[in-house]
Write a structure and sequence with these properties.
Shape: elongated
Number of strands: 13
Order of helices and strands: EEEEEHEEEEEEEE
Strand order of the largest sheet: 1-2-3-4-7-8-12-13
Distance between the termini: 7 Å
Radius of gyration: 19 Å
Number of helices: 1
Structural class: mainly beta
């Protein structure tokens, strides 16, 4: 089966319910987050639970694990790429993210009504810039996806053919860059804590759908 990639990258503001923020930072904190994104003929909704633990004497740096459910749906969306060894100049883990792209090797799958629902474990990193500002990053590690089959048109080397039942890969795994498998979500965000229980996040969300499968 071939691989395909689509990226949804949108900056937005979301409201999140947070644990009480105190002047003295806590050893642990928990976060429940709801994120809604919208783009051109595509949308996603993600909910997540995060458990972080403060590191060091000051507890300003945090690391933790969580779980995230992401639903993605769209209309007539193009998914494109190729296996990492064809799409990038190197497939070495982490280095592949910055490697040159070989766009001439990309194929395209236009899916009429894509829908995926993914449940993944996440890793989370964060740092308290001050009592009010907090910067963080999280990314999906491993999980699974369910989704519907949809008619699609596959185009390679200028030749198109109809695929009656394209579907998303069922297994998700973070391998970095084009090595990734399945449907993965990641976020960079800056949080402003305006009271003890609530904060506002300025957030950049990247949602990757990889390995849309087609019948051989």
């Amino acid at each position: 089966m071939r691989k395909y990639l689509s990226t949804l990258f949108i900056c937005l503001i979301v409201i999140s319910g947070l644990c009480a923020q105190q002047k003295r930072l806590l050893t642990t904190n928990q976060l429940i987050d709801l994120t809604v994104t919208a783009g051109s003929s595509q949308q996603s909704i993600a909910t997540s639970y995060v458990f972080n633990r403060g590191i060091g004497k000051s507890k300003k740096f945090e690391i933790g694990l969580g779980v995230r459910n992401t639903a993605y749906f769209g209309v007539k969306k193009d998914f494109w790429t190729a296996p990492a060894n064809l799409a990038r100049t190197t497939t070495f883990p982490f280095a592949v993210v910055f490697a040159g792209q070989k766009t001439e090797n990309w194929d395209t799958l236009n899916v009429q009504r894509p829908f995926t629902n993914s449940l993944n474990a996440t890793v989370n990193l964060g740092y308290h810039l001050s009592n009010k500002f907090y910067a963080g990053f999280n990314i999906d590690l491993i999980g699974f996806t369910v989704g519907r089959k949809s008619p699609a048109v596959f185009t390679s080397n200028g030749v198109s053919k109809t695929e009656p039942a394209a579907k998303p890969a069922a297994f998700n795994l973070l391998l970095t860059g084009d090595n990734d498998y399945g449907s993965l979500n990641s976020e960079f965000f800056l949080r402003y804590q305006f009271n003890k229980k609530n904060g506002v996040l300025k957030e950049c969300t990247s949602f990757y759908l990889q390995n849309i499968n087609q019948p051989l």
